[in-house]
Amino acid sequence: MSFAGPANFRRSAARALADEPLQRELARFSQGFQVRRVEAASRLPEFEALRDRARDIKNHCLAHLDFYLERYEENCRAAGGEVHWCATAEDARQAILAICRRLGAKTMAKGKSMVSEEIGLNEFLAEEGVRAVETDLGEYILQLRGESPSHIVAPAIHVATEQWTEAFRAAHTDRPADRSLSDGSEIMAEARAVLREQFLGADVGLTGANFLIAETGSSVIFTNEGNGDLSQTLPRAHIVIAGIEKVIPTLEDLSVFMRVLPRSATGQELTVYTTLSTGPRRPEDLDGPEEYHVVLLDNGRADMLGGEFQDMLRCIRCAACMNACPVYKQIGGHAYGWVYPGPMGAVLTPGLRGVEEAGHLPNASTFCGKCEEVCPVRIPLPRMMRHWREREFARRLLPARFRYGLGLWAFFAARPALYRPFAALAARVLGSRKRWRRLPLAGGWTGTRDFPASEGRSFMSLWRAGRRR
Amino acid sequence: MASETGKPPRTVALFATCLADLVRPSVAFASARLLEAAGCRVEAPAAQTCCGQPAYNSGDRKHAAQIARKTVRAFRGYEWIVVPSGSCAGMLRCHYADLLGGEDEGFGERVWELTSFLVDVCGFQDVRARWPMTAVYHDSCAGLRELGVKDQPRALLAMVEGLELAELPDAEVCCGFGGTFCVKYPDISTAMVRDKTAAVTSTGAGALLAGDLGCLMNMAGRLSREGSPVEVRHVAEVLAGMTDEVPPL
Questions:
Q1: Which residues numbered 337-396 in A keep a CB inside 8 Å of some CB on B?
Q2: In angstroms, rounded to a whole number, what is the distance separating the alpha carbons of residues A98 and A375?
Q3: Which domain does B34 fall in, by range?
Q4: Beta carbons of B183 and A460 less than 8 Å apart
Q5: Count of domains in chain B?
Q6: What is chain B's percent helix, strand, coil content, to nearest 5?
Q7: What is the interface pTM, i.e. ipTM, of the complex?
Q8: Of B91, B120, B149, which closes a domain?
Q9: Interatomic CA distance for residues A138 and A145, integer angstroms
Q10: pTM of the model
């Protein structure tokens, strides 16, 4: 997926703010998931302790990532699976294409996978003559609309019901034109019928993975629609694509994440399906794929190990941070310009795409801290956004006017004897009106807000003059 | 003045904050009054300026550390440092150690947000203010999440005669100020503060209170631009009984 830069961010954000249907969907969404998360967490007394445990398991894995990845590979191979190590997005695309070519595959049924978005898989395969069909309901509507996900768990959160209906009518022309398609259940029934044919006809199936289990070599998906199961059991080959940070040691550890992830994501106690896949179909199995492949993607993740951004690799992609983020709530996910939106995207995207390209994302935060408050694995997201700002500052990527302004202010702020008369003067100037509807250099503020007047004297000048009350 | 327990009064250093210094000295004077009422002796070290957040949050660690070192020096020798802002108190308490490493001299542990100091340290019960008003309280982010300031201001406001505190929907949602954020991303910031003013208006309250001047100026500025009659004030002004002495923000 290509990346939209800083100027684009401002434009897209402004567009999103003016988009009334989008604003309606965002307002509804921000109430839903957040409230349900709080309710689900409050019903599980050990929820906070489980968050600590989840953080600790991830930290342990990241400290011994090489060890667990090798155990995982060993056990996956022992179960008959094949592991493809891919350093870059291009490596992963080629590995997947090679499997498709060898099997003569023309169609792929896809379960939901953000990593496949990260490597731009669908567009690439289309150019190579393989048609990938999204089978997650949200991803499917996006494919029909030619859009990318705006949320990592609920990818089509920005699409209004009437837009669903419109897209289905335009795409499913073989169905009666006068059919009713006005509510969720009718839309779902039609999607189910259409997608059933895709599952049955697909040559290969691809899913992501929420976790990889080192001790068994299994991949795990948490889903609600059952499409992931059909994508991976019906076609001849099942391809799993996952980032290298997805590995955890044991099934016991998985039980921790089963309790933490769905509650954090959607407020569910469990997702409808929790599916473990270990190798291809065995002789005694009734169904399952003949081949089982795992594409392990680095794509910049290993560079985040051992530094100030390592904690970000704990992320389990639950989206609690974007559900809670007041900035995301205003602008939605597309404005962020790439695969990963919201607070986790603001930290991860500069890590994977470079701070030159994505340095504006960690700036688009008020540091309100809500994301860190809800993160199930306790990633200090604001701190890491600040670290990106530090990198950006050190590389002089900020506008010169801003840097010099900040430097000048800091010069005074570090020298109280110079600062005091300056503040006293500024207080007098700002106190010369009742309120300011326009101020030089502060158009960003006064365009939409008044600036309250100063009381006319600075506190320090009054205090030093002896006033005490 | 000796406190009621007969112990010598605590000497408290007031960190006024640059915004109170520049725009609203009343907040700092109100804080001094409250601290004295709680039996403290108040000093305001002359070498204080700003906590350094604009530099720190812009990624300029070098200047932020310079300002932090200067602040630590200015407050050397004080056991209690009180700040009428959750955001600046959070900076001093939680982030100086990160900026200065071992050089911070245990500074952070001596720093308190005003309402938290009055309630958690002083056990202050003696609010003598009267304000016939229905008000809502906005929980500023840093105070709430970095310092756990939530019940303290409400407990103190409950002692103000005539004041009825209504609950503000989404009181814990950021108002969109965010320091330099509000001028770097004015569109998003405005959308956020608009949600906030809509929530305030929906309660029918006559006043909006908070413990942070940055947020207060943002919300007051927006309410004023909307032509709203809602009064906006720092919680310290109300607690110190200054509502008749100074006009709202």
A1: 363-370, 372-373, 386, 388-394
A2: 38
A3: 10-120
A4: no
A5: 2
A6: 50, 15, 35
A7: 0.95
A8: B120
A9: 11
A10: 0.95
